[in-house]
Specification:
ABC transporter transmembrane region fold; Rossmann fold; six-stranded mixed beta sheet; 10 strands; elongated
Length: 565
């Protein structure tokens, strides 16, 4: 408002200049219509309106306008950064507590696209929206001045300006539809890119890379077609803006002077305001069209926020300090949709004992481990940790006492030390813990042989490491942490026989120090655990020690024979 008011005052000083062109010695305040108060006020200050003073006041008004514009722009930048920062933090924090069962069935491409590309488009939407809002304020102020100077002229121009909105409504409609389709296609593209990159080795090795690439190319064509459509409609609005303005203004001047007998002097000053107003109006329409072009991203962002906020983890309030007794699973059932995964599971896991889960693929081993780790709640039945119902525990405090080693090693694009220590400070104590962890994970000699040692960068997803090396880094990370429960979900499946034997020895060393829960297909790693549970089609078929299962369970005996354990 300050910018447009000061601009209007500055423009008003052009009329005294025009008067001085004809007669440099006198200025008639009345020629300015209702804005004559400006000149009257200046004269009341004892200032004679010479050319120099008129130019000085014009300069003063525009200088103040520049200061107001600067303050407005700085404030806008601060608000925009705060707005985008809050969106990013809100999305990240909501994702962190998203229900895991819901997460694994979600569209990974949509999650990635919304949290990266879509946030940028929302930033663009913010810019366009508030630019249009600011221009709307300026239209209001300029129109107010125009009506104040010459109401008849103002009404005529307003009528003409109204007709220009018909074109822009058509543009807005088509742009919004294309924007929604663009966002949908972008989500699809992100998902396909994740699959293409993640499975690139397989696609390349099997000659199927072109087949999968065709899907990506089709999506790219769709995305660019929608971008082109948005761009064309935007170009129409931009190109039509000035011709429409001049058409309206020229028509109104002819009507005002020739038919209604208007005064050209007041028309000129009113015209200045109206040209500013119409220019702001056209710019507002252009910005609003740009806002429409990214409105699909706003809808996507709202839907995504609603989705992850509704699918939050249910959490208790009781803080978990240390595992002291047992985990008890009573009559637990779990399913994904209509597929029943766990059926009437009853298990008791004692502190510092070792338990192995075995069985064929799809028997429910990993799902049971996810239940123990607090990643998924049971559909029915109960889980107790140290005699406390799991639903009453603060899950984060419980999960911090768990080490989790998966079949697919988790490697970050950072140094070996940061991967193992999880970005701990390299203090003397932490360095000692690091050395102990890599020794237990049988990777000490490999790290010491590297030119940069523990400061070696591992690359994206550990691209510089073999499968066994990745797994040992992952194992070392869990051993570095202060934990009570160590879960190893197919942790030795990617290791060669020699490394597997070394890890097996490490597991033997860990027995009695941690509560070990091991999921394994390779039975050689679990023959000395305290207890084995044999799972079959989501049920516990049998349990006991390695030797007792060998004696009484033929299916287990057959598995052992096939693996030549």
């Amino acid at each position: 408002m300050a910018v447009s008011i000061l601009d209007a005052f500055g423009l008003s000083m052009f009329l005294p200049l025009l008067q001085m062109v004809n007669d440099s010695s006198t200025v008639d305040p009345e020629a300015m219509g209702n804005l004559s108060f400006l000149l009257v006020g200046i004269e009341a200050m004892g200032i004679q309106l010479t050319l120099g003073f008129v130019l000085l006041f014009m300069l003063l008004f525009f200088l103040l306008k520049g200061i107001a514009s600067y303050l407005s722009a700085v404030y806008y930048v601060i608000l925009k950064q705060l707005f985008i920062k809050r969106i990013r933090l809100k999305l990240l924090r909501a994702l962190n507590v998203m229900d895991f069962k819901r997460f694994i069935t979600s569209n990974a491409g949509k999650i990635q696209n919304t949290m990266s590309g879509e946030v940028e488009r929302v930033a663009q939407a913010y810019t366009s929206y508030f630019e249009s809002f600011q221009q709307g304020v300026m239209v209001f102020v300029y129109m107010g001045f125009a009506f104040y100077v010459d109401i008849q002229f103002a009404i005529l121009v307003s009528i003409g300006g109204t007709f220009t909105n018909i074109l822009y409504k058509v543009i807005y409609k088509h742009t919004k539809v294309a924007s929604g389709k663009l966002t949908f296609s972008s989500n699809t593209y992100q998902g396909q890119i994740l699959q293409h990159v993640g499975n690139f080795k397989y696609l390349k090795a099997t000659g199927m890379v072109e087949v999968h690439s065709d899907r990506l190319e089709n999506t790219i064509y769709k995305i660019e077609a929608f971008r082109k459509r948005i761009g064309i409609w935007g170009s129409i609005g931009s190109a039509a803006r000035e011709p429409l303005l001049i058409t309206v203004v020229a028509s109104v001047i002819l009507v005002q002077v020739n038919l209604l007998g208007g005064e050209l002097a007041t028309i000129l000053i009113s015209l200045l305001f109206f040209y500013r107003a119409l220019n702001s109006l056209a710019f507002m329409q252009q910005q609003w069209n740009e806002f429409m072009s990214v409105s699909g991203s706003l809808e996507n962002m709202k839907d995504f926020q609603k989705e992850i906020e509704l699918e939050q983890d249910k959490n208790g309030n009781l803080c978990f300090d240390k595992f002291t007794s047992s985990i008890v699973i009573e009559n637990v059932n779990f399913s994904y949709g209509k597929a029943s995964i766990l059926k009437n599971i009853n298990v008791k896991i004692q502190k510092n004992k070792s338990l192995a889960l075995i069985g064929e693929s799809g028997s429910g081993k990993t799902t049971l481990v996810s239940l123990i780790a607090g990643l998924i709640p049971p559909d029915s039945g109960n889980v107790y940790v140290d005699n406390v119902p799991f639903k009453e525990l603060d899950k984060l405090s419980y999960q911090k006492r768990i080490g989790y080693i998966t079949q697919e090693p988790v490697i970050f694009n950072d140094t070996i030390f940061n991967n193992v220590s999880f970005w701990s400070e390299p203090s003397k104590e932490n360095l000692q813990r690091f050395e102990k962890a890599i020794q237990q994970a049988s990777i000490e000699s490999y790290i010491q042989a590297l030119p940069n040692g523990k400061e070696t960068l591992l690359g994206n997803n550990g691209i510089n490491l073999s499968g066994g090396q990745k797994q040992r880094i992952s194992i070392a990370r869990e051993l570095y942490k202060d934990i009570d429960i160590l879960i190893m979900d197919e942790a030795t499946s990617a290791l060669d026989s020699e490394t597997e034997f070394a890890i097996q020895q490490s597991i033997e060393d860990l027995k009695g120090k941690y509560t070990l829960i091991i999921v394994a297909h390779r039975l050689s790693t679990i023959r000395n655990v305290d207890r084995l549970i044999f799972m079959d089609e989501g049920k516990i078929a049998d349990e006991g020690t390695f030797h007792t299962l060998m004696e009484k369970y033929p299916r287990f005996r057959k598995m052992v024979a096939l693996q030549e354990v």
